Amino acid sequence: MPTISSVPTLTVVASIVLTCISLPAYSQDTTANCQSKYDWMNNALGQGPCTVSSWLLNPCSGVNGAFIPALMNINEPYRFNVPQGTAAPCTCNTVLFSTMYACAACQGGEAYIIPWNEFSVNCTQPPISSYPEDVPSGTSIPEWAFLDLTDSGTLDLARAEQIANKRTFDSCSYCQSQWVPP
């Protein structure tokens, strides 16, 4: 039974715990900066592919959110955390892979990006050309991110740029998150 002197402490602890449980705080961030020639990669909200990737990782990241670091050395493979063990679909999908690929490419690291088949080695039936979660409300997914890259293993940047220049839609929290190419 709590003593009179411990009641205020218990109240404060209970308030903090209830606040943390009832107010999930997702954050996303990146220190990566794309070269301006890759502005076409930005979504309809003006977010670059690194920021979009951070948002798309949020469903897997919990309350701490997701952070996408800048490339440290463009002469080494860009190894964004390859899904381990029984990987969740939110980390094992071609849409996230495409935005991460674009994030590395726009920083000058395209030649060193691991291909899809290496990235997805621990994925079981990964979603292809679709994002398996609700699109977070603070972002949108550019249409080019839905390209099927399973044959080539990489994002076709020339094709992606063509699609971006036509920009017919971004996928967002209030839209369908699957694109069917013509």
Overview of this protein structure:
By secondary structure, this protein is mostly helical. Helices cover 30% and strands 5% of the residues. The protein is built from five helices and four strands; from the N terminus they run αβαβααβαβ. The chain has a two-stranded parallel sheet. A two-stranded antiparallel ribbon has the order 3-4. It is globular and about 35 Å long. The protein starts with 6 loop residues before the first helix and ends in an 11-residue tail after the last strand.
Question: What keywords describe this structure?
Answer:
single chain, 182 residues, two-stranded parallel sheet, two-stranded antiparallel ribbon, 5 helices, 30% helix, 5% strand, disordered C terminus
